[in-house]
Specification:
Layout lengths: L3 E10 L4 E11 L2 E6 L9 E4 L4 E4 L1 E6 L8 H5 L3 H17 L2 E6 L5 H8 L7 E3 L4 E3 L27 E3 L3 H13 L5 E4 L18 H13 L4 E5 L2 H10 L3 E4 L5 H9 L3 E3 L2 H14 L3 H4 L2 H18 L19 H10 L1 H7 L2 H6 L17 E4 L19 E4 L2 E5 L7
């Protein structure tokens, strides 16, 4: 790959919350080689003049389900593998073209899909896959109807199913080891009831304490961590006590539990946009009635939870958690966050904080020497107008992932 110079850039420094004009960024292969106000043209084989446009790190979504091409996850669990995979490809492409150069999949995507993205075989963000999420029988990842015979079935291993059902300390250890061996970069567990599963009330907890600790122990042995779907204070506290590192959603958290999360150095990844989308679009897209009945239990308090977590000082990552046709609303989570915690915090949730969650600080979510060249070129300053990152990439004329343009509507001037 040739050395590319992005000159005359206004770099969005999200650590300091400011735009730095008149900068030049030299890219060598997949990494940023140098960031300087000096002329670097002599070192470049290709020069792209940004004419003062904003240059910022690619966005990171810490909670997606790229295989969820239908809002009915029970339907997805029975979809033929080839069909489910083909339906996921446009979801990935559209995420990338919205400016999300990295995503952490919370159940469904596997090592093979992540490798296809890394090798540019498909148009896709970089994927941190969790493989199959782990759920107890009757938990949030168990999509079997009450009328089904409740014993393991082939659907648990289909690519369209985001989870696998497993019970008991020995079996959860084996399942965690299996997902890690198959390439999961972190383990996802269902530590409470959820909206899109048919039989579990939101207030339910998932897994025994011993099971939770066994899963965390296995992830730790693999030098990684566990992310836990959890809504209620009790579910959140149990997960954190067991060693879980990131809480997904957390809508029903109270102040005491928020302080408990902060004191343990854990993260929360709220996902408000999915509840708004499911509330307005779910019925028309095939969301089952038993799921629709549970949406408002978490949607109406979600904004209060984010405000509380922000006030307490809990670090929050960006997450969308959208399903089916609702994936189109992914960037709108930024606007919701900005309205609650301010634009800078909203942007940090999808860059610097998200990179910390992924354990890739300094490599992702920043524009600096040594970082991976995942970059967005924006017409305007998102710190002033967050809407510039909405509109399906309308205001993002160029996107670079791994030092390669995946979208480029800028004129090129050879050096």
């Amino acid at each position: 790959m040739k050395k590319i110079l992005l000159k005359n850039a206004s770099i969005l420094d999200l650590a300091r919350g400011e735009l730095i004009a008149g900068m030049n960024v030299l890219i060598d292969g997949r990494n940023i080689l140098e960031v300087s106000g000096a002329d670097l043209s002599s070192s470049a084989e290709e020069v792209v003049d940004l004419q003062g446009r904003t240059l910022m790190p690619g966005l990171i979504d810490c909670h997606v389900h790229v295989m969820a091409s239908h809002v009915n996850l029970g339907h997805m669990a029975n979809m033929p593998n080839a069909f489910a995979l083909i339906r996921a490809l446009p979801i990935l492409k559209e995420m990338l073209h919205r400016g999300f150069t990295t995503v952490r999949d919370a159940g469904g995507a596997d090592w093979a899909l992540a490798q296809a993205a890394d090798n540019a075989l498909i148009e896709s963000p970089r994927i941190f896959p969790a493989g199959k999420a782990l759920s107890q029988t009757g938990g949030h990842g168990d999509f079997r109807a009450r009328s089904d015979q409740l014993e393991p079935c082939a659907c648990s291993f289909r690519i369209g199913n985001i989870a696998r059902v497993v019970d008991g300390v020995d079996d959860v250890r084996r399942a965690a080891r299996d997902e890690l061996t198959k390439g999961a970069t972190q383990i996802k567990i269902m530590a409470s009831g959820g909206v899109t599963s048919p039989n579990d009330p939101i207030g339910n907890t998932g897994f025994s304490i011993d099971e939770l600790k066994a899963i965390v122990d296995e992830a730790t042995a693999w030098q990684t961590y566990v992310m836990a779907h959890a809504y209620t204070p009790r579910a959140i506290r149990r997960a954190i006590e067991a060693g879980v590192r990131t809480i997904e959603h957390g809508n029903l958290i109270d102040e005491e539990t928020a302080h408990f999360v902060k004191d343990h150095g854990a993260f929360v990844v709220p996902t408000l946009i999915t509840y708004d989308a499911l509330s307005t679009e779910g019925p028309g897209l095939g969301l089952p009635p038993e799921s629709i009945a549970k949406i408002d239990d978490v949607r109406l308090v979600g904004r209060q939870a984010i405000s509380l977590l922000h006030r307490v000082g809990v670090k929050m990552g960006f997450g969308s958690d959208l399903l089916g046709e609702s994936h189109v609303h992914q960037s709108e989570e930024l606007k919701i966050r900005a309205g609650l915690v301010g634009t800078l915090d909203a942007l940090q949730s999808a860059t610097t904080v998200a990179a910390e969650i992924l354990q890739r600080e300094g490599a992702l979510g920043v524009v600096k020497a040594g970082a991976i060249a995942d970059l967005l070129i924006v017409d305007g300053n998102p710190l002033v107008d967050i809407d510039l990152l909405l509109g399906q990439g309308k205001f993002i004329p160029a996107i670079m992932k791994d030092g390669r343009f995946v979208k480029n509507q800028l004129s090129k001037n050879a050096s």
